[in-house]
Amino acid sequence: MNSQSLWGPLGRPLRAVRGYPRRAPLTLAYVCLLLAGHVWVSRGPSADRAAGVLGYLSTNLDNLRDHPLSALLGSALFFDGTLTDVTSTDFVGTFITLGLGVCCFLAWAEHRWGKRRAVAVFLGGHVAATLLTAVVISVALRHGWYPAAVRQALDYGVSYGAQTVLAIGTLALPRWRRLPWAAFVLAWPLGGADWSGPLPDFTTIGHLMAAALGFGLLGVPAFRRPRVRPGGPPSPAGDSRPQQGSVPQSPSAAAGTAAGAKTP
């Protein structure tokens, strides 16, 4: 077996990994920041201090009323999940939100539209879904559907922004995969939902809100066109075949795997 036949099947993913820093430098920096924050929270010198920081940055009703900007922006600097307990449902959620949502589809968005628009989609989904969920929580509290303790619930992480990018990232997939992928994006948060009266738990609502925002952006013409890069025109808006070695190849392959996996 020669060298070419040995590395042939791995050539495309290896090229994608090698070119990742060049195509999505902001996403790479953000992933490193999230990983550093996770290490500090889970293995830092003071568990009480970490818990205090996360409690302050949590996007619950009390914090959104007291310090909304710090809570909304600060909560996006950490992810709620595990990287080591691979047999748990928490790891599945981490794989979907951090692995697919941030590492793959946010990188695809940065490469397709540029840094500013990718940040606008991700951060806009994070903030909008959080605020819409807060409205739902307020209504649910008035009707007695949620316990009063939900006002101080610990709620932080990147999953709402990741969910928005997962939804709009439907454009990265071949046409025949888009409907199954959209169904997966909507279904996976419901897999582990806890129902209270007529509503699921507020985090499930937040994920569904974020997905709805991402799917809504699919109808915006500006998001159906890739940015114009020096040296050549953009690819057609409806073309689902990414360029050789480009970032969209990675989420396409990963998304096909995730859609067939068992979700929590």
Specify the overall morphology. globular
| CA-based gyration radius | 19 Å
Task: Give the biggest sheet.
Answer: 2 strands, antiparallel
Mean pLDDT across all amino acids:
84
> What is the helix content?
55-70%
Instruction: State the separation between the terminal residues, measured CA to CA.
Output: 41 Å
Write the element-wise H/E pattern from the N-terminal end onward. HHHHHHHHHHEEHHH
Number of separate strands: 2
Strand content: under 5%
Low-confidence stretches: 1-6, 232-264
Count every helix, treating DSSP H or I runs of 4 or more residues as helices. 13
Structural class: mainly alpha
Strand order of the largest sheet: 1-2
Please tell me about this protein's structure.
By secondary structure, the chain is mostly helical. It has 13 helices and two strands, in the order ααααααααααββααα. It has helices spanning 3-7, 11-23, 25-43, 47-57, 61-66, 68-74, 89-113, 115-143, 159-168, 175-187, 202-217, 221-224, 249-259, and strands at residues 195-196, 199-200. It starts with a helix and ends in a 5-residue tail after the last helix. Mean pLDDT is 84; it is low at 1-6 and 232-264.
